[in-house]
Design brief:
- The protein is an alpha+beta fold and 315 residues long.
- The protein folds into two domains: 5-198, Rossmann fold, CATH 3.40.50; 208-299, Formyl transferase, C-terminal domain (Methionyl-tRNA Fmet Formyltransferase, Chain A, domain 2).
- The chain is built from eight helices and 17 strands.
- It has helices at 16-25, 49-57, 71-79, 96-99, 122-128, 164-184, 218-227, 292-299; strands spanning 5-10, 27-32, 37-39, 44-46, 61-62, 84-88, 106-110, 133-140, 150-157, 234-238, 241-246, 249-251, 260-264, 267-271, 276-279, 281-284, 290-291.
- The strands form four sheets. Strands 5-2-1-6-7-8-9 form a seven-stranded mixed sheet.
- A hairpin with a 4-residue loop joins strand 3 (37-39) and strand 4.
- Helix 1 (16-25) runs parallel beside helix 6 and helix 5 packs antiparallel against helix 7.
- The protein is elongated, with a radius of gyration of 22 Å.
- It starts with a strand and ends in a 16-residue tail after the last helix.
- Belongs to the Fmt family.
Length: 315
């Protein structure tokens, strides 16, 4: 087949490397991103990174507020002449009527080894749940939530020190390479149905997902810290006051969950349900992050002090 004309659907910075890789090898006839949103204290209307980049490049851009029942946008996609559409972290559900507009339908770059971690936050939940391998799947989009057949899939080992920030970078590079391969092989890729019985889910994170569960095993506490590093970050409570914690790692020691065992130059050592973790930085509300030892000295925190033990409400 001749080189396909591509419509690209994406919004956040994560999608930019994928857009750039596609643009380098194929003609991008339309970029679709979420609408501009108010950002910052001044609530300045700001385009998502993909929209801003498309404008810089002079690419045709659409930012529809809704897709379902949007006949005008459907017609614009049709008139773009796209042979195939690619989605990468676009952030909206695609209606069935839209999926059939391009001749080769929609391909999605999903950052997990489907059917594992279907949903909005596969990178974060893979880390929170202690996975050592994840990967990228290029799938044919259907009307379900990441349920379409698999076209290409490649594993990626997770380095033990990676947070969601580093893992996102690695998966973005992998997705960029795989989508170019998929688009180059559109006519000879063989779709493989997913095994729904093996599906796991990765729902969108909420702020409480970043709250430290001191009663958990120390490794689980560190894994959660890794998973929420981009957002909502790691939050602990002391006397009801919120504190952002940074640089968590495994440490030696045992005690009551949330109990400070040691205060030293390298940070605080805090007991968990099993084992302990070291905390390198602490950020009180409305203040800058500081070395944990400096914060502890100023706050009168020492061995025997206990962080509040927060537990999620039972489902």
């Amino acid at each position: 087949m001749t080189s396909p004309r591509v419509a690209f659907f994406g919004s956040p910075a994560f999608a930019l490397p994928v857009l750039e890789a596609i643009r380098e090898h194929f003609e991008v006839v339309l970029v679709v991103a979420q609408p501009d949103k108010p950002v910052g204290r001044g609530l300045k209307l700001t385009p998502p990174p993909v929209a801003a980049r498309a404008a810089e490049l002079g690419l045709p851009l659409a930012q529809p507020k809704k897709l379902r029942g949007n006949v005008t946008f459907e017609e614009r996609l049709r008139e773009s002449g796209a042979d195939v559409a690619v989605t990468c972290a676009y952030g909206k559900i695609l209606p069935g009527s839209l999926l059939t507009v391009p001749r080769y339908g929609f391909l999605n770059t999903h950052t997990s080894l489907l059917p594992a971690y279907r949903g909005a936050a596969p990178i974060q939940w893979a880390l929170i749940r202690g996975e050592t391998v994840t990967g990228t799947t290029i799938m044919q989009t259907d009307e379900g939530m990441d349920t379409g057949p698999i076209l290409l899939q490649e594993p990626l080992p997770i380095a033990p020190q990676w947070t969601s920030l580093e893992l996102a970078d690695a998966l973005g590079a992998q997705a960029s390479r795989l989508i170019v391969e998929a688009l180059s092989r559109l006519s000879d890729l063989s779709p493989t149905p997913q095994d729904d019985s093996r599906a796991t889910h990765a729902p969108m994170l909420v702020k409480e997902d970043g709250f430290v569960r001191w009663g958990d095993d120390a490794r689980a506490v560190v894994n959660r810290y890794r998973g929420v590093a981009a957002w909502p970050q790691t939050t602990a409570f002391l006397g009801g006051a919120r504190l952002k914690l940074g640089g968590l790692s495994l440490a030696e020691g045992s005690g009551q969950p949330g109990e400070v065992l040691r205060v030293e130059e390298g940070g605080l050592t805090v007991a968990c349900g099993t084992g302990a973790v070291r905390v390198r930085t602490v950020q009180p509300e409305a203040r800058k992050a500081q070395p944990a030892q400096v914060w502890a000295q100023g706050a009168g925190v020492g061995p025997g002090t206990r962080f509040d033990v927060w537990e999620p409400d039972p489902a």
